[in-house]
Amino acid sequence: MKKQMFGVVATLLLGANVLLPVFAQAESLNELDKKESAITRQSDKISGELQIALNDVNEKYQEVNEIRTKISQNEATLKKTKSDITETEQKIEQRKLAIAERMKTAQVNSMTDRSITALLEAKDLGEFLNRAFAMSVIQNAEKTKVASLGEAKDKLTELKATQEKTQAQLKKDSQSLEAETTKLDNKMANLKQELADNKTSLEKISQDKEVEKARQAAEKAQKAQAEKEAKAEKAAQAEKAAQVAAAKKAEEAAKTAAVQEKAQASSQPASAQQTTTSEQPKPAEKPAEPSTPTTSGRTLQMESTAYSCAESVNTYFTAMGIDLRQNPQVVAVDPSVIPLGSMVEVSGYGIAIAGDTGGAIKGNIIDCHFSTVEECIQWGRRSVTVTVIS
Protein backbone atom coordinates (compact mmCIF):
# COMPACT_ATOMS: atom_id res chain seq x y z
CA MET A 1 0.00 0.00 0.00
CA LYS A 2 2.80 2.39 0.95
CA LYS A 3 4.64 1.57 -2.26
CA GLN A 4 1.57 2.42 -4.33
CA MET A 5 1.07 5.73 -2.52
CA PHE A 6 4.75 6.60 -3.00
CA GLY A 7 4.48 5.85 -6.75
CA VAL A 8 1.44 8.08 -7.21
CA VAL A 9 2.95 10.97 -5.21
CA ALA A 10 6.27 10.68 -7.05
CA THR A 11 4.48 10.74 -10.42
CA LEU A 12 2.48 13.86 -9.50
CA LEU A 13 5.54 15.65 -8.14
CA LEU A 14 7.58 14.81 -11.23
CA GLY A 15 4.80 15.98 -13.53
CA ALA A 16 4.51 19.22 -11.55
CA ASN A 17 8.27 19.82 -11.78
CA VAL A 18 8.11 19.33 -15.54
CA LEU A 19 5.08 21.53 -16.18
CA LEU A 20 5.50 24.33 -13.61
CA PRO A 21 8.32 26.08 -15.54
CA VAL A 22 6.16 25.91 -18.64
CA PHE A 23 3.19 27.42 -16.77
CA ALA A 24 5.41 30.19 -15.39
CA GLN A 25 6.80 31.19 -18.78
CA ALA A 26 3.98 30.48 -21.21
CA GLU A 27 1.29 33.01 -22.07
CA SER A 28 -2.37 32.04 -22.15
CA LEU A 29 -4.09 31.40 -25.46
CA ASN A 30 -6.29 34.44 -24.81
CA GLU A 31 -3.24 36.71 -24.49
CA LEU A 32 -1.63 35.16 -27.58
CA ASP A 33 -4.87 35.62 -29.54
CA LYS A 34 -4.96 39.30 -28.49
CA LYS A 35 -1.37 39.81 -29.61
CA GLU A 36 -2.04 38.00 -32.87
CA SER A 37 -5.16 40.12 -33.50
CA ALA A 38 -3.28 43.36 -32.76
CA ILE A 39 -0.39 42.46 -35.07
CA THR A 40 -2.83 41.35 -37.77
CA ARG A 41 -4.66 44.71 -37.56
CA GLN A 42 -1.33 46.51 -37.73
CA SER A 43 -0.32 44.42 -40.75
CA ASP A 44 -3.64 45.24 -42.46
CA LYS A 45 -2.99 48.94 -41.81
CA ILE A 46 0.54 48.66 -43.17
CA SER A 47 -0.79 46.77 -46.21
CA GLY A 48 -3.24 49.63 -46.82
CA GLU A 49 -0.43 52.16 -46.54
CA LEU A 50 1.68 50.02 -48.83
CA GLN A 51 -1.13 49.96 -51.41
CA ILE A 52 -1.41 53.76 -51.22
CA ALA A 53 2.35 54.00 -51.59
CA LEU A 54 2.19 51.70 -54.60
CA ASN A 55 -0.46 53.93 -56.16
CA ASP A 56 1.75 56.95 -55.49
CA VAL A 57 4.67 55.08 -57.01
CA ASN A 58 2.65 54.30 -60.14
CA GLU A 59 1.55 57.92 -60.46
CA LYS A 60 5.06 59.17 -59.82
CA TYR A 61 6.57 56.82 -62.36
CA GLN A 62 3.94 57.94 -64.86
CA GLU A 63 5.06 61.52 -64.22
CA VAL A 64 8.64 60.32 -64.52
CA ASN A 65 7.88 58.79 -67.91
CA GLU A 66 6.22 62.00 -69.03
CA ILE A 67 9.21 64.03 -67.84
CA ARG A 68 11.56 61.66 -69.61
CA THR A 69 9.48 62.02 -72.78
CA LYS A 70 9.70 65.79 -72.47
CA ILE A 71 13.43 65.52 -71.83
CA SER A 72 13.79 63.41 -74.94
CA GLN A 73 11.75 65.91 -76.98
CA ASN A 74 13.73 68.83 -75.57
CA GLU A 75 16.96 67.06 -76.39
CA ALA A 76 15.74 66.57 -79.97
CA THR A 77 14.69 70.23 -80.17
CA LEU A 78 17.99 71.29 -78.68
CA LYS A 79 19.84 69.19 -81.20
CA LYS A 80 17.86 70.78 -84.06
CA THR A 81 18.39 74.23 -82.57
CA LYS A 82 22.11 73.67 -82.43
CA SER A 83 22.00 72.57 -86.05
CA ASP A 84 20.02 75.72 -86.99
CA ILE A 85 22.48 77.86 -85.07
CA THR A 86 25.38 76.32 -86.95
CA GLU A 87 23.59 76.82 -90.27
CA THR A 88 22.70 80.43 -89.39
CA GLU A 89 26.23 81.20 -88.38
CA GLN A 90 27.44 79.81 -91.68
CA LYS A 91 24.96 82.02 -93.60
CA ILE A 92 25.96 85.07 -91.58
CA GLU A 93 29.58 84.37 -92.31
CA GLN A 94 28.78 84.00 -96.03
CA ARG A 95 26.87 87.31 -96.08
CA LYS A 96 29.68 89.06 -94.30
CA LEU A 97 32.13 87.73 -96.88
CA ALA A 98 29.82 88.75 -99.80
CA ILE A 99 29.35 92.31 -98.50
CA ALA A 100 33.02 92.67 -97.79
CA GLU A 101 33.81 91.45 -101.32
CA ARG A 102 31.37 93.92 -102.87
CA MET A 103 32.70 96.81 -100.83
CA LYS A 104 36.22 95.84 -101.81
CA THR A 105 35.23 95.70 -105.49
CA ALA A 106 33.49 99.08 -105.24
CA GLN A 107 36.56 100.67 -103.73
CA VAL A 108 38.91 99.15 -106.29
CA ASN A 109 36.77 100.02 -109.34
CA SER A 110 35.53 103.48 -108.15
CA MET A 111 31.85 102.43 -108.36
CA THR A 112 30.65 105.69 -106.77
CA ASP A 113 32.24 107.89 -109.43
CA ARG A 114 30.86 105.62 -112.15
CA SER A 115 27.38 105.83 -110.71
CA ILE A 116 27.46 109.62 -110.72
CA THR A 117 28.88 109.65 -114.25
CA ALA A 118 26.15 107.25 -115.36
CA LEU A 119 23.47 109.60 -114.02
CA LEU A 120 25.05 112.68 -115.65
CA GLU A 121 25.36 110.96 -119.03
CA ALA A 122 21.61 110.33 -119.19
CA LYS A 123 20.09 111.66 -122.47
CA ASP A 124 16.95 112.92 -120.88
CA LEU A 125 15.11 113.07 -117.59
CA GLY A 126 13.40 109.70 -118.06
CA GLU A 127 16.65 107.87 -118.50
CA PHE A 128 18.07 109.77 -115.52
CA LEU A 129 15.16 108.61 -113.33
CA ASN A 130 15.48 105.05 -114.55
CA ARG A 131 19.16 104.98 -113.72
CA ALA A 132 18.55 106.53 -110.31
CA PHE A 133 15.79 103.96 -109.58
CA ALA A 134 18.09 101.09 -110.53
CA MET A 135 20.76 102.42 -108.21
CA SER A 136 18.15 102.77 -105.41
CA VAL A 137 17.05 99.14 -105.89
CA ILE A 138 20.67 98.00 -105.60
CA GLN A 139 21.14 100.07 -102.44
CA ASN A 140 17.89 98.72 -100.90
CA ALA A 141 19.02 95.21 -101.63
CA GLU A 142 22.19 95.86 -99.69
CA LYS A 143 20.17 97.37 -96.85
CA THR A 144 17.90 94.28 -96.81
CA LYS A 145 20.91 92.04 -96.61
CA VAL A 146 22.25 94.08 -93.71
CA ALA A 147 18.86 93.94 -91.95
CA SER A 148 18.72 90.18 -92.54
CA LEU A 149 22.15 89.91 -90.99
CA GLY A 150 20.85 91.72 -87.87
CA GLU A 151 17.82 89.43 -87.65
CA ALA A 152 20.09 86.44 -87.95
CA LYS A 153 22.11 87.77 -85.01
CA ASP A 154 18.92 88.29 -82.95
CA LYS A 155 17.74 84.77 -83.75
CA LEU A 156 21.10 83.37 -82.76
CA THR A 157 20.90 85.22 -79.44
CA GLU A 158 17.34 83.96 -78.82
CA LEU A 159 18.31 80.37 -79.66
CA LYS A 160 21.21 80.54 -77.22
CA ALA A 161 18.90 81.83 -74.46
CA THR A 162 16.39 79.05 -75.21
CA GLN A 163 19.17 76.49 -75.06
CA GLU A 164 20.39 77.73 -71.68
CA LYS A 165 16.84 77.83 -70.27
CA THR A 166 16.11 74.31 -71.54
CA GLN A 167 19.31 72.94 -70.04
CA ALA A 168 18.55 74.54 -66.66
CA GLN A 169 15.00 73.12 -66.63
CA LEU A 170 16.25 69.67 -67.60
CA LYS A 171 18.77 69.75 -64.76
CA LYS A 172 16.10 70.85 -62.29
CA ASP A 173 13.70 68.11 -63.47
CA SER A 174 16.47 65.52 -63.18
CA GLN A 175 17.28 66.52 -59.60
CA SER A 176 13.59 66.49 -58.64
CA LEU A 177 13.18 63.05 -60.23
CA GLU A 178 16.13 61.62 -58.28
CA ALA A 179 14.83 63.04 -54.98
CA GLU A 180 11.29 61.67 -55.51
CA THR A 181 12.64 58.26 -56.54
CA THR A 182 14.84 58.02 -53.44
CA LYS A 183 11.96 59.05 -51.18
CA LEU A 184 9.59 56.46 -52.69
CA ASP A 185 12.21 53.71 -52.51
CA ASN A 186 12.85 54.41 -48.84
CA LYS A 187 9.14 54.46 -48.04
CA MET A 188 8.54 51.17 -49.82
CA ALA A 189 11.55 49.56 -48.12
CA ASN A 190 10.35 50.66 -44.66
CA LEU A 191 6.82 49.33 -45.25
CA LYS A 192 8.14 46.02 -46.54
CA GLN A 193 10.43 45.69 -43.50
CA GLU A 194 7.50 46.36 -41.15
CA LEU A 195 5.45 43.67 -42.88
CA ALA A 196 8.38 41.23 -42.66
CA ASP A 197 8.78 41.97 -38.92
CA ASN A 198 5.05 41.42 -38.36
CA LYS A 199 5.21 38.15 -40.27
CA THR A 200 8.04 36.97 -38.02
CA SER A 201 6.05 37.99 -34.93
CA LEU A 202 2.96 36.14 -36.17
CA GLU A 203 5.02 33.00 -36.82
CA LYS A 204 6.45 33.21 -33.27
CA ILE A 205 2.96 33.67 -31.80
CA SER A 206 1.72 30.69 -33.83
CA GLN A 207 4.52 28.56 -32.37
CA ASP A 208 3.73 29.81 -28.87
CA LYS A 209 0.06 28.93 -29.37
CA GLU A 210 0.98 25.40 -30.44
CA VAL A 211 3.17 25.03 -27.36
CA GLU A 212 0.39 26.38 -25.14
CA LYS A 213 -2.17 24.01 -26.70
CA ALA A 214 0.21 21.10 -26.15
CA ARG A 215 0.73 22.21 -22.54
CA GLN A 216 -3.01 22.44 -21.91
CA ALA A 217 -3.57 19.05 -23.50
CA ALA A 218 -0.78 17.58 -21.36
CA GLU A 219 -2.22 19.22 -18.24
CA LYS A 220 -5.66 17.86 -19.04
CA ALA A 221 -4.28 14.39 -19.69
CA GLN A 222 -2.24 14.49 -16.50
CA LYS A 223 -5.28 15.63 -14.51
CA ALA A 224 -7.36 12.81 -16.00
CA GLN A 225 -4.57 10.35 -15.25
CA ALA A 226 -4.32 11.61 -11.67
CA GLU A 227 -8.09 11.24 -11.22
CA LYS A 228 -7.93 7.74 -12.67
CA GLU A 229 -5.06 6.80 -10.36
CA ALA A 230 -6.84 8.37 -7.39
CA LYS A 231 -9.93 6.24 -8.13
CA ALA A 232 -7.76 3.16 -8.53
CA GLU A 233 -5.98 3.97 -5.26
CA LYS A 234 -9.29 4.47 -3.49
CA ALA A 235 -10.57 1.13 -4.81
CA ALA A 236 -7.31 -0.52 -3.76
CA GLN A 237 -7.61 0.97 -0.30
CA ALA A 238 -11.18 -0.32 -0.01
CA GLU A 239 -10.09 -3.75 -1.18
CA LYS A 240 -7.15 -3.71 1.23
CA ALA A 241 -9.42 -2.67 4.10
CA ALA A 242 -11.78 -5.51 3.26
CA GLN A 243 -8.87 -7.95 3.16
CA VAL A 244 -7.51 -6.65 6.48
CA ALA A 245 -10.97 -6.93 8.06
CA ALA A 246 -11.37 -10.46 6.74
CA ALA A 247 -7.90 -11.41 7.95
CA LYS A 248 -8.60 -9.91 11.37
CA LYS A 249 -11.91 -11.74 11.58
CA ALA A 250 -10.23 -15.00 10.59
CA GLU A 251 -7.48 -14.40 13.15
CA GLU A 252 -10.03 -13.79 15.91
CA ALA A 253 -11.92 -16.92 14.89
CA ALA A 254 -8.67 -18.87 14.96
CA LYS A 255 -7.83 -17.54 18.43
CA THR A 256 -11.29 -18.48 19.68
CA ALA A 257 -10.96 -21.96 18.23
CA ALA A 258 -7.51 -22.32 19.78
CA VAL A 259 -8.81 -21.38 23.22
CA GLN A 260 -11.65 -23.87 22.90
CA GLU A 261 -9.30 -26.60 21.72
CA LYS A 262 -6.91 -25.86 24.58
CA ALA A 263 -9.77 -26.18 27.05
CA GLN A 264 -10.80 -29.49 25.53
CA ALA A 265 -7.21 -30.71 25.42
CA SER A 266 -6.82 -30.28 29.16
CA SER A 267 -9.46 -32.96 29.65
CA GLN A 268 -8.15 -35.33 26.94
CA PRO A 269 -5.17 -37.72 26.85
CA ALA A 270 -1.85 -36.45 25.48
CA SER A 271 -2.21 -38.44 22.28
CA ALA A 272 -5.53 -36.84 21.59
CA GLN A 273 -4.05 -33.42 22.29
CA GLN A 274 -1.34 -34.03 19.74
CA THR A 275 -3.89 -35.12 17.15
CA THR A 276 -6.05 -32.11 17.84
CA THR A 277 -3.10 -29.74 17.69
CA SER A 278 -1.91 -31.14 14.37
CA GLU A 279 -5.35 -30.74 12.89
CA GLN A 280 -5.71 -27.03 13.79
CA PRO A 281 -6.31 -24.86 10.68
CA LYS A 282 -3.46 -22.62 9.56
CA PRO A 283 -4.07 -18.84 9.62
CA ALA A 284 -5.01 -17.30 6.27
CA GLU A 285 -2.11 -16.02 4.24
CA LYS A 286 -1.90 -12.20 3.68
CA PRO A 287 -3.01 -11.44 0.09
CA ALA A 288 -0.53 -9.74 -2.22
CA GLU A 289 -0.95 -6.01 -2.62
CA PRO A 290 -2.31 -5.00 -6.06
CA SER A 291 0.00 -2.95 -8.25
CA THR A 292 -0.94 -0.24 -10.83
CA PRO A 293 1.24 1.24 -13.55
CA THR A 294 2.52 4.81 -13.06
CA THR A 295 0.89 5.97 -16.32
CA SER A 296 -1.20 4.48 -19.09
CA GLY A 297 -1.11 4.93 -22.83
CA ARG A 298 0.62 3.63 -25.96
CA THR A 299 3.85 1.86 -24.94
CA LEU A 300 6.97 1.61 -27.11
CA GLN A 301 10.34 -0.09 -26.67
CA MET A 302 12.98 2.38 -27.86
CA GLU A 303 16.70 3.13 -27.87
CA SER A 304 17.58 6.21 -25.81
CA THR A 305 20.47 8.64 -26.11
CA ALA A 306 21.17 11.90 -24.26
CA TYR A 307 21.98 15.50 -25.14
CA SER A 308 22.39 18.81 -23.30
CA CYS A 309 21.89 22.47 -24.18
CA ALA A 310 25.17 23.08 -22.30
CA GLU A 311 27.04 21.57 -25.25
CA SER A 312 28.43 24.26 -27.55
CA VAL A 313 26.92 22.64 -30.65
CA ASN A 314 23.37 22.94 -29.30
CA THR A 315 21.04 25.90 -28.78
CA TYR A 316 18.83 26.73 -25.81
CA PHE A 317 15.60 26.52 -27.83
CA THR A 318 13.86 23.38 -29.13
CA ALA A 319 11.99 22.84 -32.40
CA MET A 320 8.80 23.93 -30.58
CA GLY A 321 10.45 27.07 -29.15
CA ILE A 322 10.82 25.71 -25.57
CA ASP A 323 13.68 27.31 -23.62
CA LEU A 324 15.69 24.35 -22.25
CA ARG A 325 17.18 26.55 -19.53
CA GLN A 326 13.70 27.04 -18.08
CA ASN A 327 12.17 23.67 -19.07
CA PRO A 328 14.93 21.01 -19.11
CA GLN A 329 12.56 17.98 -18.94
CA VAL A 330 12.26 17.61 -22.76
CA VAL A 331 12.90 14.71 -25.15
CA ALA A 332 13.64 14.80 -28.88
CA VAL A 333 11.54 12.40 -30.99
CA ASP A 334 10.72 11.44 -34.54
CA PRO A 335 7.35 13.25 -35.12
CA SER A 336 6.19 10.39 -37.34
CA VAL A 337 6.49 8.04 -34.33
CA ILE A 338 5.58 10.35 -31.42
CA PRO A 339 3.78 13.64 -32.29
CA LEU A 340 5.42 16.86 -31.09
CA GLY A 341 3.78 18.26 -27.99
CA SER A 342 2.94 14.82 -26.54
CA MET A 343 3.51 14.03 -22.86
CA VAL A 344 5.58 10.85 -22.47
CA GLU A 345 6.99 8.79 -19.62
CA VAL A 346 10.47 7.34 -20.17
CA SER A 347 11.58 4.56 -17.84
CA GLY A 348 14.44 5.81 -15.68
CA TYR A 349 13.95 9.43 -16.86
CA GLY A 350 10.39 10.35 -15.92
CA ILE A 351 7.57 12.35 -17.50
CA ALA A 352 8.65 14.84 -20.17
CA ILE A 353 7.41 16.87 -23.14
CA ALA A 354 8.14 15.60 -26.66
CA GLY A 355 9.20 19.07 -27.75
CA ASP A 356 12.32 18.68 -29.90
CA THR A 357 13.63 16.88 -33.00
CA GLY A 358 17.05 15.94 -34.34
CA GLY A 359 18.73 14.90 -37.55
CA ALA A 360 19.75 11.53 -36.07
CA ILE A 361 16.43 10.95 -34.28
CA LYS A 362 14.66 8.69 -36.78
CA GLY A 363 12.32 5.80 -35.97
CA ASN A 364 12.33 4.20 -32.50
CA ILE A 365 15.02 6.46 -31.02
CA ILE A 366 14.41 9.01 -28.29
CA ASP A 367 16.95 11.64 -27.15
CA CYS A 368 16.60 12.71 -23.50
CA HIS A 369 17.75 16.21 -22.48
CA PHE A 370 19.89 16.81 -19.40
CA SER A 371 21.09 20.10 -17.95
CA THR A 372 24.74 19.00 -17.81
CA VAL A 373 27.09 16.97 -20.00
CA GLU A 374 28.03 14.78 -16.99
CA GLU A 375 24.41 13.61 -16.72
CA CYS A 376 24.44 12.76 -20.44
CA ILE A 377 27.58 10.64 -19.98
CA GLN A 378 26.01 8.82 -17.03
CA TRP A 379 22.86 8.13 -19.04
CA GLY A 380 24.78 6.83 -22.06
CA ARG A 381 22.82 4.72 -24.54
CA ARG A 382 20.19 2.32 -23.21
CA SER A 383 16.93 0.58 -24.02
CA VAL A 384 13.89 2.22 -22.43
CA THR A 385 10.12 1.81 -22.25
CA VAL A 386 8.26 4.88 -23.50
CA THR A 387 4.60 5.44 -22.64
CA VAL A 388 2.78 8.11 -24.68
CA ILE A 389 0.42 9.71 -22.13
CA SER A 390 -1.24 12.16 -24.54
UniProtKB/TrEMBL annotation:
Pfam family, any one: CC_PcsB
Matching SUPFAM superfamilies: Barwin-like endoglucanases (SSF50685)
Residue span(s) of domain 3D: 330-389
Region (Disordered): 198-232, 257-300
Comp. bias (Low complexity): 257-278
Alphabetical UniProt keywords: Signal
Peptidoglycan hydrolase PcsB coiled-coil domain span: 85-157
Name of the molecule in the record: 3D domain-containing protein
Source species of the chain: Enterococcus xiangfangensis
